[in-house]
Amino acid sequence: MKKIIPCALAALMSASCLAVTACGGEAITIYTSTEDYNMDYLQSCLDEAFPDYDVKIEYMSTSNIAAKVIAEGETTDCDIIYAQEYGYISQMAEAGVLFDLSSFDKSCYMDDTLQIEEKDYLIPAIRTGGAVIINNYVLEQNDLPKPTSYADLLDEKYEGLISMPSPKSSGTGYMFYLSLVNAMGETDALSYFDSFTENVLAYTSSGSGPVNALVSREAAIGLGMISQAAEKITGGVDELEILIFEEGAPFNLYGSCVVKGKEEKAGVMEIMEYLHSTYTNLSSEAFYPESVLKDKTYDVANFPENIVYADMSGNTLERKEDLLAKWTH
Predict the structure, then answer these.
(1) Model's pTM, two decimal places?
(2) CA distance 220 to 236
(3) Which helix (H) or strand (E) holds 131?
(4) Which fold has domain 7-127+252-286?
(5) Closest CA to 252 of 62, 106, 37, 39
(6) Is it the case that residue 324 has pLDDT exceeding 80?
């Protein structure tokens, strides 16, 4: 799955970004919570496209990025935030610490990536979707049929064979929770999870937990990430299968933004233009085929085609806090 496009191509695709002047040695700092392989790829591409700038990419969790930038404002060492969860971008925009990016032409992005009140402060970067993933070997060993709906997962015959990330500790878990609240209504969804929990082997602390449990054959059914499952299948775990039910695939969106006051710093807006015009397409080709760009399709092995996505409206921090306060499992 991790198909790497030569970074020379990235440079050619954004020739205007190569007309770079020296910045006096001052580092441009990017905070991100993206995966390590995407961090490494971004660093190598930026180093090649901007040889006269000292670009440093630092990993930090989504919540810590937001808290630090809000607390420090223009005094923070962070200049650009890459691939930040939309809810935290909203929080930072409301705190007044982000630069307005409405001058960027965002007509190239999928409409649902811009259905956020604070869309002027971000450039869409990544979409990550989830699905119900099964291990056909474990189902067969237990003489069990494939589930075809979320309702099927309540059947007692699946008791102890289902894994899901906890919404309280995992963004992946929360996106499943929110998607079913939107599909069923809050009251029915809370009732659903009361029954669902009786069949759960364990609520994992991380989003990768369910697929790992499927690979180790501890679970037969996992609510997990499409990209992780596709990568495992490509790597030879062909007993896994990705299922998308009628409600659609839940998903998270991540965007990039500039810290207010840093837009005048040499190189900052050039790098943002590069992320916008070039890198989103490159990272989609290499790692994230669930595109945020219109009229773009990516051929990645074992990825479902024509994914129908779930209703993820109301994905705000306020709504998240409210729903998590009602999660008792």
Answers:
(1) 0.78
(2) 17
(3) strand 123-135
(4) D-Maltodextrin-Binding Protein; domain 2 (3.40.190)
(5) 62
(6) yes
